[in-house]
N-acylglucosamine-6-phosphate 2-epimerase (Collinsella ureilytica), 226 residues
Amino acid sequence: MPHALIEELKGKLIVSVQAYPGEPLRTPEIMAAMSRACELGGAAAIRCQGLADIAAIKGRVEVPVIGLWKDGHEGVYITPTRRHALACVHAGADIVAVDATGRPRPDGRPLCETLDAIKEAGAFAMADCMTFEDIEAAVDLGFDLVSTTLSHGVAATDCTMADGPDLELLRRATSVFPDVPVICEGRVHTAEDARQAHAAGAWAVVVGTAITHPTSITSWFAEAMQ
C-alpha cells in the first residue's frame, strides 16, 4: 500500500512549476510565488527543477515537493545520477523524480543505486518513463510512483499542442499495475485533457506548461489568431 503522502495525491492535480534558461521568470523567488499560487488553486503537490527552486518552493508551500535536477539537454538528464538525486533530497524534495529509461546513465552506474540512495535518505522516488517497458522495470525496482513524463520522447520541454497526453500508455500501465501510483505527465494542456487522464486511471495528473508557462500560453493564442 502506498505511503500516506503518496495516497494523498490520488485523484489530484500536481503542478509543474519550471522556467527555462533565459526566461524572465527564471528566479527561485518567482517560482516559489507561483507555486504558492498553484497551491491556493488546489494543487496537491508541486514538481520543480533545480536545487535553488526546490529549496525556495519547499519554504513557501505546505504540499509535497517533487524535485528534480536537469543537467544537460540530451539522453539521461533528469536527475541523471545518484549525486544529483541526493542533492535534491538535501534541498528539500519530498519526492525525487529521475529518468528511469533504459538509456545509459552519465556516471555509468545502474538506476537501482540512485533509487536506493533516495530511499536511504528518507525520500520517495518517482520514475520518469518513456515506454511501458520502462514502467515495468521501474515497478520491479520498487519506485514509489511511475510517470509517463518521457513518453513523447521529450521531457515536457516540447510545449507544442501537437497532441495530448499519452492515454494509451496510461491505460496499459494502470490495467497491468492497478495498485501502482501511475502518474500522467506530458502535454496535458486543457482541463479536458486532465479529465481524460483521470478517467483513464491516472493516480494523479501533472500539468505544467498550460498553467505556469505564460510564454507558451501566449504563443498558443497568438498563433490561433494568425
Notes: The longest strand covers residues 12-17. Residues 28-41 form the longest helix (14 residues). The chain has a mean pLDDT of 95. The CA atoms of residues 65 and 93 lie 5 Å apart.
